[in-house]
Amino acid sequence: MTKVGFGTLNWVVLLVYLVAMLGVGVYFTKKASKNTDAFFKAKSSIPAWAAGFSIYATTLSAITFMSTPEQSFLNDWAYSVGNLSIFLIIPILIKYYVPFFRKLKVTTAYEYLEERFSPVMRVIGSLLFILYHIGRVAIVIYLPIIAITSVSNINPILIACVVGGLCIIYTFLGGIEGVIWSDVIQGMLLLGGALLIIIVGIVSIKGGFGTVVSDAVSGDKFFSVKDWNPGDLTKFIPLIFAGQFFNTLYQYTGSQDVVQRYQTTATQKETNKSLWTNGFLALITIPLFFGMGTVLFSFYKNVGTLPHGFNTSAIVPYFVVTRIPAGIAGLVIAAIFAAAQSTIASSLNAISSCVVTDFKQRFFNHRLKSISDVTLARIIIIVTGLFGLGMSIYLLIGNASKTWDLFLTVTGLFGVPIAGIFAAGIFTKRSNTFGAVLGLILSVIATVFVQQNSDSSLIVATVAFITSFIFTYLISFFAPKKYVHNVVGLTASTVKETYVKS
Hints:
Blueprint: H1 8-27, H2 29-32, H3 36-41, H4 48-59, H5 62-74, H6 86-103, H7 110-116, H8 119-149, H9 156-204, H10 208-218, H11 237-253, H12 256-259, H13 268-302, H14 315-323, H15 328-363, H16 373-397, H17 401-412, H18 415-427, H19 433-452, H20 457-476
Helix pairs in contact: 1-9, 1-15, 4-9, 4-13, 4-15, 5-13, 5-15, 6-11, 6-13, 7-8, 8-9, 8-15, 8-16, 8-17, 9-13, 9-15, 9-16, 10-13, 11-18, 11-20, 14-15, 15-16, 18-19, 18-20, 19-20
């Protein structure tokens, strides 16, 4: 397939965006340098709407920006029901999870695991998050660049260094406050980019919106009877909702990059508002991103043609560089990289918060007194950021993606089970460290078995959460007495009671 030139004007727009993001990091450097409360929590000074935008941008990566439209382009909107799970999750978060994170004034989510279970569970949860997100940084850089450079003549190594490198720098400088305000700009840009693609596509089709709807209905591009067929679990709506519910529950309860935002607002009421802001944004994502794929389906049915053997994972950047005017196309490509950068920056700051809080401050503070916590956090951001960038470049020039996918799969297997342990800790009094450790191990074994015998990642997520919760609870009945301790103030039934730290 002949690649399309990116053009000088597009490059100018993209570079202006990247420099602007760097400027945000520079602006917040002095405030972030004061202490870890500023670097990791922004001194709880972030407005609720901005924190909500940040949560949204963090959970929506560039991979999602391109894969969601591809899903509706090839199939239909069945997977959109997964987005609705957030409206079931938010009330649960507000009533049962956020109060504990706020009460304990945690910097990381895994501090709750220590108070509820033991330091062992805190270390396990934090370490697994760190390993997974170091690997994820590389993939979040690699995949959108592969898609964009497959349809344009942009140099992949150059763009990886520029996009990834500048992201590392502004995260290093501005701390979580710089990351959040960058997320706000990036979130607006990616929503605007999606809307622009829809508008250009509709205007280019004879008959406009009416033709798009007609094509979608005739091609079963919205919803169909097939989406309720349990014989095809990859498109079975009840499973999609359940699987996405458990995946999302992990993101919002056991994943530090999201939980960290709960402490950046002044009060729990503001945190609640930020979650509802994020829920509203998740709702408008449905017509924007699934609608984008439907519009592109109609466009390439009536107006344009795709090259022979075209890889549809690049359908969005291909439309952008071939159909959107110069300058504006650069802005939309910037939106794709914005989605990547918001995820990368959040991961890097969250990784540094885990290393500093869960390891340095908790276990090695007396040995590492010579280095300040903020300095160590910045060193961690540089080291992990450069490792992720270096790995993405290695993937771009080599053929090791399968090996790296295996690493992400292995470390990712522990994500949703950790959410099950959080749930067991909050919703049961009986669960203890003995049950949590063995429950995690058995859950991962069960998850691996299901993964090897199923084509649906949503089944894997569902099994991972349920088995983790059940195993943790049941095994805890057989724990030696030394693993049973006071949990008053740490469970749902005692949420309003005062917790006295041992």
